[in-house]
């Protein structure tokens, strides 16, 4: 019982510190019909124990019972939102923060949230 409580405490602390945006998709397996693949929300099938990244920069993994997916994009916080703007690059799944008046000048960012 103590081991269970300790592991729950560690998990809760990790989730609090990480603040990642994750979700789970349950596989539609029945006990007599176990599949060796997962079907994602777009209807695409993936092999068991595989990982992939979606067009929206979400990394997913296929397990026997579920697909686990988490956002991989760090979002900038703590920058001058009047003087600067964030720009998302879909190819690199990342943001950069630049001046509104001159996009060649990078702005200082004090933190990033995943």
TrEMBL record:
Name of the molecule in the record: Beta-microseminoprotein
Sorted UniProt keywords: Disulfide bond, Secreted, Signal
Transmembrane spans: none
InterPro entries linked: PSP94
Keyword field contains Signal: yes
Superkingdom: Eukaryota
Gene3D superfamilies per UniProt: 2.20.25.590, Complement Module, domain 1 (2.10.70.10)
Record carries keyword Secreted: yes
Subcellular location, record wording: Secreted
Stated family: Belongs to the beta-microseminoprotein family.
Signal peptide: 1-20
Pfam families for the chain: PSP94
